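so i finally got all the pieces together for this one. its two components total, 880 residues if u count the protein bits. some of the lines might not be protein, just check the labels. i wanna see the whole assembly predicted at once instead of chain by chain like last time, that was a mess tbh
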Amino acid sequence: MTPPPTVDLLIEARWIIPVEPSDTTLEHHAVAVLDGRIVDILPTADARQRYAAAETVSLTEHVLIPGLVNLHCHAAMTLMRGLADDLPLMRWLNEAIWPAETRHASTTFVRDGSLLAAAEMLRGGITTCNDMYFYPEATAEAFSRLGLRGVLGITVIEFPSQYASDADDYLSKGLATFDAWRDDPLIHFTLSPHAPYTVADKTLERVASLADELELPIHIHIHETLSEINDSLRDFGQRPISRLDQLGLLGPNLIGVHAVHLDDGDIDRLTLHNCAIAHCPTSNMKLASGAAPAARLLDRGLNVGLGTDGAASNNRLDLFREMQQASLLAKLTTGDAAALPAHRALRMATLDGARALGLDHLIGSLSPGKAADLCAVRVSDPDALPCFHPVSHLVHVLGRHDVSDVWVAGRPRVQGGRLLQITNTELLSTARLWQNRLRQ
Amino acid sequence: MTPPPTVDLLIEARWIIPVEPSDTTLEHHAVAVLDGRIVDILPTADARQRYAAAETVSLTEHVLIPGLVNLHCHAAMTLMRGLADDLPLMRWLNEAIWPAETRHASTTFVRDGSLLAAAEMLRGGITTCNDMYFYPEATAEAFSRLGLRGVLGITVIEFPSQYASDADDYLSKGLATFDAWRDDPLIHFTLSPHAPYTVADKTLERVASLADELELPIHIHIHETLSEINDSLRDFGQRPISRLDQLGLLGPNLIGVHAVHLDDGDIDRLTLHNCAIAHCPTSNMKLASGAAPAARLLDRGLNVGLGTDGAASNNRLDLFREMQQASLLAKLTTGDAAALPAHRALRMATLDGARALGLDHLIGSLSPGKAADLCAVRVSDPDALPCFHPVSHLVHVLGRHDVSDVWVAGRPRVQGGRLLQITNTELLSTARLWQNRLRQ
């Protein structure tokens, strides 16, 4: 008789929602993990017989799901959480955010802000964050320290900052970061031109050719506000999406963030090129930008993931809220209470986000061969009971406070609701330091 | 020298937001409580000199606010939390909720469901709940046991149930409950005809005259869906609000719940009669009913409070979420990011709700003479920092999990996040019992 194969970790759960196959909830199943990868998903009773596990974690009243994928964030802006609420986008940018960034943005600012963000995200079940900001090397350092899987923008914007003097300088600094980190298994990259209204044609063309050459996604804000579109019509004689199309940026590797204001032509172009959308419902509502037609985009077969946006415009990096908000907003805007049902919202926050990033071979659903990026959610708080449909509960009842355990690539990051790689004391002193600096 | 006056309780807080005066945040202030009432609010340093307190609670990193007022709930429906999601209102009622109620509703069902609801609400900072359901005596019993201030509906609907055989029977049973509980200082009442489409003219007239006679508010669902309005036009030749006007129900004591679909004439009538509205944004989005024009109603000077609705259509009894949702939804629907700012949302969830219930002499803001219904919210979770504006944080960052201490009429109900009057074990076994029964 051959001995049972050894695995590093066996996680037994009351429920497992693998996301794919769709609409599936497995009861009393287990995930076997070896070398950071899922090697099997099977009934717990069978798993105990089939595998010898170095460690077994028993989640008797939990739902186990893929780690959540935050498809759009500016992690460092966590330091500006709630700095200027109740203002429209352009005033918020011009009067509050950009001046604060001009005064304060630095390697330290970005590293500290990204550290707070990574802590908040991991504790809330997010295992991958697609980020766009200055000093991506500082964000990479922070994410790496806490073990969050990061997708970092090689960011470019036309105006000078402390970080870089012009578009070429942004790109060369971002590319240097890419070279320094490209072999790290948890750090990935995108090209991140800020937006059509802040990046020139020539730079966008360079971005398109770099994206081709390096096989990277392009991560860009598009059609967030009506004024962005009107300004583009005035300045370029066309809508931003049409301009991006002409400049060669549209394709399956494009992640268009927000995409709130879309006409039929925009949607046709996005569909034709098989683009992905990062839907950020709370940010769009808070800044009064509008409601992206997420349900309609899904009906057209477009890939739509979910993003929190930065903490300055949300003000939480909480994908549980975004799942619920996306579902509620779709029901409201379509007038159909069956629109964007719970399982669809969960898929947006996991597999669809992974696919947009070109990482769906690795993350986004629970299946053998994929990385063990996992999130366990307790269903034992009396405030969350009774529970008839775990997937519906994930979207409409439970929240990030119910997240108990998180693994990235099979390694524990959160256990019993507590972060393992950093103390609360350090997080609090970092937050308070910047609160005092920014208040001045 | 005279000794300092003795108070029962001195609560010292980092911040106090009394709601009235508006836009006021007091720093390092204290609330002095005697015989269940607030007797003073003053700087902490002065309070320590001026009062001898039997007990002092020091909340060094907390915001102290008035206990939240849930202006619309069906507490017992907590047992049906998430029973049937992603369905439109009438299918949800006809295929899921009403059949379950027909099979299960009983004194025990209502008492147990109301107990779970009261626990969830108190732990989330809600100190007053305006409820509408069958068997209000069972809800009164549950609320009273946990020390939640309850406003119970003398409920009437035209169709027979286990609870009552016809409209007269509903009213006489509700009035008997009113008589039994009317002297309880924490139990108040409304007349609660379910909705214009489920209650006949004759009954509505009786309700209006009872409300006059007993000096009670009238609590009724109105204009929740377009079909409700179209059916009324077909059956009565007028819109429901116009019908209620004609039957004598509109007045400052009317609490119209939902009020999603309003034309200019409806708003004029509501304004003319100084009616109050219970805005339930999450429920309205989830059931795809629409978005009530809350910002417009506030601009017209109408009194608009916030309600969670029941857990079967929300699926949380969480007024922190409703504050944020009301603010976000107003920004979205008006296109104005300054619409319904944070302090306004907090006032809707406290003083405006109290005023709608005719209880603003007693609760809804922190001022000497009012009952000590208080909620303390911790601002020390790293996920909530930095914090520049506490009131904005209450609406956009913090949540019910940050509630640490709750008092009703000066008596502690939640301490350090834990309920004092009931164990988690009892709550869990109650929830599981009904989960099993309802699943069958």
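The first strand of chain A starts at residue 6 and ends at 16.
The CA atoms of residues 329 and 335 of chain A lie 10 Å apart.
anyway lmk what u think
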